[in-house]
């Protein structure tokens, strides 16, 4: 794998790999999988992306643990009211979960001999699953831990090419360069106060005349003030502005944009934009947890992102190797699952 990026932690048994392309697609097509879901869209995007990459036949099991089990996660026991029915179902080949609320269930299912994978829960014990994925900006490391710069997602090179070939005319008719504006909101320690929104609006307004059109999509966390700023700053250009009604055109925006403007609070959206190999500008409001700052520093160092300039001076032509973490993680899952199968009792 190209562009392997070492991590400078002590006693590291895992390197962080530049997720650049793939040769043979790893596949466990037809194998059954459970996705234990805590209902958080970003977590489900990660596990679904891996399942799709592997070709798994998925059943999504939504959980909402009661108190005190919810409070005790990730290191406490699983809510027995939810776990008991799972133990009575036909077991899958693989169990995937993301987020700390899923960890007690993953740990319990592993004790039954199932092959398990945890995502996005660096506080979990390494004994909680057969394989644990963390983003490189988290510090958990170990022989059963895999870390990549960006989270796994379902936007493979093949998927993006397919979306581009079938792009709706409403998008292809827009003048280029097309700038996709991917809006997050408060979270991860970032603050969208009036001053931050004003800075964002000024930066957008300064570059508006330098792009041909805009593709704008908010998230459920986007505050009205930020949405209004984006609306007013882009209103003078041809655009598609998703208002939350109907299906989100986010996948089509991701495939068809020539450059991206993303808010720093969303690791997933930033990582998905970096799967395209196209310029990604990041707007960073005040605050931000240290691990998010490490994430954005690593992507800048890799060459995938740059800070959103206040002057409007942008370069839409720089390129980098697209980051496809799902290929790396899926390959590791397949290798370890086959090893697990070969050493399971009765084999």
Task: Give a structural overview.
This protein is an alpha/beta fold and 347 residues long. It folds into 2 domains: 168 residues, 3-Layer(aba) Sandwich (Rossmann fold); 151 residues, Glycogen Phosphorylase B (Rossmann fold), CATH 3.40.50.2000. It is built from 12 helices and 14 strands. The strands form 3 sheets. It has a 6-stranded parallel beta sheet with strand order 4-3-5-6-7-8, with helices on both faces. Strands 11-10-9-12-13-14 form a 6-stranded parallel beta sheet, with helices on both faces. The protein has a two-stranded antiparallel sheet with strand order 1-2. Strand 10, helix 8 and strand 11 form a beta-alpha-beta unit. Helix 1 crosses helix 12 and helix 5 packs across helix 9. The N terminus is likely disordered.
Features:
347 residues; alpha/beta; Rossmann fold; six-stranded parallel sheet; 34% helix; globular
CATH superfamily of the largest domain: Response regulator
Q: What is the CATH level 1 assignment of the largest domain?
A: Alpha Beta
Q: For the report, how would you describe the main beta sheet? A: 6 strands, parallel
Which structural class best describes the helix and strand composition? alpha/beta
Count of all domains: 2
């Amino acid at each position: 794998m190209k562009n392997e990026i070492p991590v400078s932690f002590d006693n590291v048994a895992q390197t962080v790999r530049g997720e650049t392309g793939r040769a043979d697609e790893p596949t466990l097509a037809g194998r059954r999988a459970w996705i234990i879901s805590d209902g958080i869209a970003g977590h489900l995007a990660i596990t679904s992306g891996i399942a799709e990459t592997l070709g798994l036949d998925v059943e999504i099991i939504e959980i909402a643990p009661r108190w005190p089990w919810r409070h005790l996660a990730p290191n406490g026991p699983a809510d027995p009211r939810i776990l008991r029915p799972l133990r009575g179902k036909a077991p899958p080949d693989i169990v995937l979960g993301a987020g700390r609320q899923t960890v007690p269930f993953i740990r319990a299912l592993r004790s039954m001999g199932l092959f398990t994978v945890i995502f996005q829960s660096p506080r979990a014990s390494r004994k909680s699953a057969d394989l644990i994925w963390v983003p490189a900006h988290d510090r958990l490391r170990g022989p059963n831990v895999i870390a990549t710069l960006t989270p796994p997602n379902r936007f493979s090179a093949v998927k993006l090419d397919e979306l581009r070939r079938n792009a709706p005319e409403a998008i292809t008719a827009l003048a280029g360069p097309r700038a996709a504006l991917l809006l997050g909101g408060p979270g991860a320690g970032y603050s969208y106060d009036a001053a931050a929104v004003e800075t964002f609006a000024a930066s957008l307004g300064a570059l508006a005349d330098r792009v041909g059109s805009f593709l704008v999509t908010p998230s459920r966390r986007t505050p009205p003030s930020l949405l209004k700023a984006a609306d007013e700053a882009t209103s003078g250009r041809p655009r598609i502005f998703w208002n939350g009604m109907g299906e989100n055109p986010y996948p089509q925006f991701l495939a068809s944009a020539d450059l991206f403007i993303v808010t720093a609070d969303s690791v997933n959206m930033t990582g998905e934009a970096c799967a395209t190999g196209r310029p990604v500008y990041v707007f960073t409001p005040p605050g931000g947890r240290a691990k998010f700052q490490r994430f954005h520093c690593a992507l800048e160092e890799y060459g995938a992102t740059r800070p959103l300039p206040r002057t409007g001076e942008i370069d839409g032509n720089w390129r980098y190797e697209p980051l496809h973490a799902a290929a790396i993680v899926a390959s590791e899952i397949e290798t370890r699952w086959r090893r697990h199968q070969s050493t399971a009792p009765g084999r």
